[in-house]
């Protein structure tokens, strides 16, 4: 393993196994969240696989998502869904809970969530509902 590989967020968080555990802890939270659940299909497995691939790549691991699906273009891929600030907050809350559940240290969780906030709020495409 090269020096660069050892210093990625992906490696710091525990690599593939930890990313998979985060995804598996994250989606039950999403499916229980009344703001988020309606946005997801009943068969969540393909979504979980894509999230695993994306987060692996996003945090500096292998380019799994791009290798299979091309450039992430995540804002465009999320445009069909009404993403509000409230939903972005709920998504981040579910992710925070998942990271805590899998035992990531608080300082690492906070750093990873800070990285994810930029993306979560970049996907906002709908004003808050009245």
From TrEMBL:
Keyword Mitochondrion attributed: no
N-terminal signal peptide: none
Residue ranges of coiled coil: none
Pfam (any one): Bac_globin
Keywords recorded for this protein, A-Z: Heme, Iron, Metal-binding, Transport
Top-level taxonomic group: Bacteria
The family this protein is said to belong to: Belongs to the truncated hemoglobin family. Group II subfamily.
Protein name according to UniProt: Globin
Organism field: Paenibacillus violae
